Amino acid sequence: MMLKKMMTTSVFTALLLLSACGNTENEDSAKPEKQINKVANTEIEKEKEVEEKVEEKVEEKVEENVEETDDTIVSADEILNPYIAEATGGDVEIVFSSTKPDLKQHIFGDGVSIQIDEYQIVHVTNMNESKKYEFQDQDEGYVLTYKMTLDNQLNEDVFFNASSMLLSDDATENLYMKAHFVERDQWMKDESNDVVRQYSKGGSFTGMQAYAMTKEQFERIKAPTLTISQPFLNDDTSKTIGKEAVFKLPFSGVGTKKATIAPEFYADKMVTDNIADKELLFSKEDINEEKEIDGVKVVLNGVQYAKITPTTAHASRFSNFGEGPFVALTAKFTVKNNSDFSFSKFLIEKKLILDQNRGTVRSEGMLEPIVSGDIKPGDSDEVLGVFIFREDEFNLLKELDLQFGPLKDEKAKMLFKEKSVTFKLPMK
Predict the structure, then answer these.
(1) I need a surface site. Which of 28, 335, 347, 382 has the fewest CB within 10 A?
(2) DSSP3 helix / strand / coil % (the chain, rounded to 5)
């Protein structure tokens, strides 16, 4: 009875009426071990401690060997971006290089993609006095240079600003891009035309970009998030192709190897803005179930469930969810508008129905990608829905249905007779 009462009153009331992110301090949710007969188990506990210490030593040795033998570390004479020395007047020493980062190619849309080919961090010392401002007036600093390739296999030119953002692990700061630390000949450009941001059909284009860091920033940052804006058509920034590209750039050999086996998460704001770190619990990314709302095709591509830990900069946004740990559900949709009406991307309703009639949870817009404008007749777009639970409450759930719609115009007027579609979600 107590369990039933809990699920029908205060616990799910707090969960189901989510409307904005708040804050919570990350707290250790581990429970103390049960008190048992300590005398009888003294020897067992001692053996257990010895085993744990041995395991720790083995793990340390494995990581040490990875750093020593990792083939992503290159010799000191292979500087990716020699122009840094000229731009700063300083001495340049390689700290870390990833010549084969194995970062998955990002597909903006059919025929258009971008890839990080390699990246490198150098330590700059003994620089010209006038260049110290590049590193917040310090005597030394670090520069990250990455090489990227844009591939355009469309039958038309695309336009690409290569705008990017490098966000620290804890999301407390954006690092500063330093385009002038890369020689102009090494910028990404199309030699066949004079328009800086125009890239011809059927071509591949490679160039470099750089970011500066202070010593303190470099020592603190382990794996920042690099976000690169999407290309667009007809030199019209409102006609973007796909979604922005997001890459994790580990700053160590061990981190690089871990990144190669890490799951690729859907690009919600927890990922793109480093709002929370994710640990995948379960995913099914090949659902591709299709339903229709009066000519609007809605395809549920897949779902991902992840245990999340808010980053330092955003912990305060989760307080309304209560105490952690938390579970995030991110659902990915493809929407194709074959109707005669436009509808607002921002006003698409998404909600979960819990165990058929236990309650509902609306999507958490603060954690979804920023969207604007309409999906017009003939257009298609990707839509993400994000939902947050407390882990203990999520574990009580047996069945989840996701309702997509109703759809609205830019003035919030309901369209298509207020119809919606519902998908049953896999949970394990």
Answers:
(1) 28
(2) 25, 35, 40
- Which CATH architecture group holds 275-428? Sandwich (2.60)
- Collect all residues with Cβ–Cβ distance below 8 Å to 279 and sequence separation of at least 6: 306, 307, 308, 309
Tokens standing for 317? 């946004």
**Closest by Cα among 353, 337, 326, 355 to 409:** 337
Asked if the bond preceding 310 is cis, omega within 30° of 0, the reply is no
Q: How many residues in total does the chain contain?
A: 428
Alpha carbon distance 226, 57 (integer Å):
33
Q: What is d(CA 428, CA 405) in angstroms, rounded to the nearest whole number?
A: 25
Using CB atoms within 10 Å of the CB of residue 321, give its burial: 0 to 12 exposed, 13 to 18 middle, 19+ buried: buried
Render the burial of 342-367: b for 16+ CB within 10 Å, e for the rest. Answer: bbbbebbebbbbbeeeeeebbbbbeb
Looking at the DSSP bridge assignments, the partners of residue 97 are 120
Q: Do 363 and 321 meet the contact criterion of CB atoms below 8 Å apart?
A: no
Q: How many CA atoms lie within 13 A of 390 on its CB side?
A: 22
pLDDT in tens, 328-339: 999 999 999 999
Residue ranges of the alpha helices (H) in 320-383? none
Joined together, the tokens standing for residue 227 give: 């976000």
Count of beta carbons in the 10 Å neighbourhood of residue 154: 18
Nearest to 245 by CA among 99, 146, 385, 348: 146
Q: Angle CA(55)–CA(60)–CA(63) in degrees, nearest 5?
A: 125
List Cα–Cα distances, 315 to 28, 121, 227, 362, 385, in angstroms.
Answer: 15, 30, 21, 21, 21
β pairing state of 158-159 and 400-404: unpaired
Confidence (pTM): 0.69
The CB density around residue 125, as the number of other CB atoms within 10 Å, is 12
- Please name the fold of domain 68-262: Immunoglobulin-like (2.60.40)
